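Researcher: Structure for this, please.
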Amino acid sequence: MKKILVIDDTDFIREDIATTLQFEGYETITAEDGLAGLEKAKSERPDLILCDVSMPRLDGFGALEQIRKTDGIRTVPFIFLTAKAEKTDMRKGMELGANDYLTKPFTTDELINAVNAQFAKVQEIKKEIDDVVDKRVFELGANISYALPHEFRTPLTGIISSTDMIDMVANDVKNGRGVDYTELESIAHDIRISAERLRHLTENFLVFTQLQNIAARPNDVAQLRKLMTEGGILGMVEDIFNMQATDLERTGDISITVEDSEIGMDSKDIYKIIQEIASNALKFSKPGSGISVIGRIEGKNYHLIVNDKGCGIKETDIPNLGVPFAQFDRISNEQQGAGLGMAIVKKLLEIYNGSMTVQSVLNQETTVIITVPTAPSLNERS
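Model: Predicted structure, token format:
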């Protein structure tokens, strides 16, 4: 049963409206002024609000303004009930986010038609959203069914092949032949690499699924946008690039010129973005080729610019960066990937109102520009 909040300081009008709506099958709650109505809206979470304009303590405009700022009720349809029919008042209400106006006195039919029209609009919007979600889920599911088995198969094949090699070494030992410890170390290394790739793929898949859910909940997104990093970005950039470069014996290839700043993101989220960008820059460039990392503040945004002198990306593949499970390859490495890492980067940037620009020349270089908001406290000072 739909719940409707009626806010009016005239007792008999408030009760008449509530009784009429109850006869039509709606549940009603009432409040005698804007302030009481605001509290009822927060506690009762109505499906629709009918509200007078001129009221003591807090008028209808003030109530609407507060409702549109309050999580959980900011999108509730709102109809003004007013004796004022002036265009300036109507314009003010619409600018604040009112959905409709009813001018007193109004008939029962006018009231019911206005209420039903709002619920019909809500259902239409929900259907449109559901259609878009269904389409995206279908497309994502199709991509997953195509790409994921291949992505899991590759590291699993490496692990199985390594276990076959172990069986061969075991047979040698069983038949009295000596153990080649160098070969055993090589097998162990291959297993470790394949297992790490499988773990990374699984973690990225879980992270991406979680981000999809968060992005579909506006309240969660709003809460994340209030966060900021614990400490500056410089330490993160240095730690991530130096750690990954050390693993590949490429510390001499990295040049970092980064202005330090707090970022308007959760620390783990900006860390993940830098981690994926660093991984790609190192993966798709050869040892000895330079990788430059530049970071600077511009207004309320922070730009992180990463350039690698690697194999580049085909121009036709650049739009697919960040599309989950899109298949593309950087020619010199002949590696195909599910694209989950960059999909996570793109989704995080979308959640935090950031952006990513990619510029590339095939067989020469790739530049990735990440733009993220600086910390809210810095924005207030600027």
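Researcher: Any notable elements?
Model: The first strand starts at residue 3 and ends at 7. Confidence is low (pLDDT under 50) at residues 331-338.
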